[in-house]
Write a structure and sequence with these properties.
Elements lengths: L1 H21 L5 E6 L4 E4 L3 H5 L3 H4 L4 H5 L5 H14 L3 E9 L5 E13 L2 E11 L1 H60 L3 H17 L2 H9 L5 H11 L4 H8 L3 H15 L8 H8 L1
Antiparallel strand pairs: 1-2, 1-5, 3-4, 4-5
Length: about 280
């Protein structure tokens, strides 16, 4: 008998301390009996719902503060808490104020147990209207940023393609419309000084038209400078003999570089045309 009396006194004391702390909370703290009727309401219910604490005592929580269309779903949640005997945290639902206004709230609900029996519920609620507005704004901003990033990626891709196409046209036009004629002039030129100027001009044009070599070098960083030279000449349609003369190499050495290019480019089929393959990389 004494043990029961002490237990009741301890429970009463702890409940009093809990209510004292809850009265200072900005969030609404509440307690109900097993049937969901309020046994305690902190003063914050006036700010949240428009009710004085005394107005809610003894009234059913679902019938008083839940919109009619949401009450059945709320009863099922309470049944689940009773069965699991576990706390539900961060439960977002709709609540109805004294004037009928419906607001979004977040609830933490704790079943109060006496042995294995639920003797009531204790919880805390807060208005999350502003939080939901902020979340919605963040979602919109995230969507806007995603759209902007996608647009920028598309523009960068299109710009890179346009730049590559422009460079390719310059390269091809110079190779087709300028270099052949300069080479013919060089072949027929008897004046040594003029021939020197032509060689310098041709060398500078080679630098200007090095887009292909740069592209190939970027894609295949393992190529040596000599291999890049051979690749450029192959792309121009030069024969092995012509390449040997231009590079001051033997024909066998040029063939050796051609074979090395096939290996490094991963061209396994002999039917694959090396010049066509290299042109596709430019």
């Amino acid at each position: 008998m004494k043990t029961t009396l002490l237990d009741d006194q301890t429970l009463t004391s702890e409940t009093a301390r809990f209510h004292e702390v809850a009265n200072q909370s900005l969030e609404w703290v509440w307690e109900t009996d097993a049937q969901g009727n309020f046994t305690y309401c902190s003063p914050s219910c006036k700010i949240l719902y428009g009710y004085e604490p005394v107005e809610l005592l003894g009234r059913n929580a679902i019938e008083t503060l839940t919109p009619p269309e949401d009450r059945e779903a709320q009863r099922k949640i309470i049944e689940e808490i009773c069965l699991s005997k576990k706390t539900r945290k961060g439960l977002r639902r709709r609540a109805m104020k004294k004037n009928g206004t419906v607001i979004p709230i977040e609830t933490h609900c704790l079943p109060m147990l006496e042995g294995k029996i639920v003797r009531g519920f204790r919880g805390m609620c807060r208005d999350i209207s502003e939080m939901l507005i902020l979340e919605l704004r963040l979602e919109h901003k995230a969507m806007e940023l995603t759209e902007v990033n996608n647009a920028l990626r598309l523009l960068l891709h299109q710009s890179a393609e346009a730049s590559a196409e422009h460079e390719r046209r310059i390269h091809d036009n110079l190779q087709r419309l300028v270099l052949p004629y300069l080479e013919k002039i060089q072949e027929r030129c008897k004046d040594q000084e003029l021939a020197l100027y032509l060689r310098v001009a041709l060398a500078n044009l080679d630098k200007i038209t090095s887009t292909f070599s740069l592209t190939l070098s970027t894609r295949l960083g393992g190529l040596t400078p000599r291999e890049l030279e051979v690749a450029e000449l192959i792309k121009q349609g030069r024969s092995t003999k012509q390449m040997a003369a231009i590079l001051d190499l033997s024909s066998r050495t040029v063939e050796f570089y051609r074979d090395k290019l096939r290996v490094k480019l991963g061209i396994k089929s002999k039917k694959t045309n090396l010049r066509s393959y290299l042109s596709s990389l430019a």
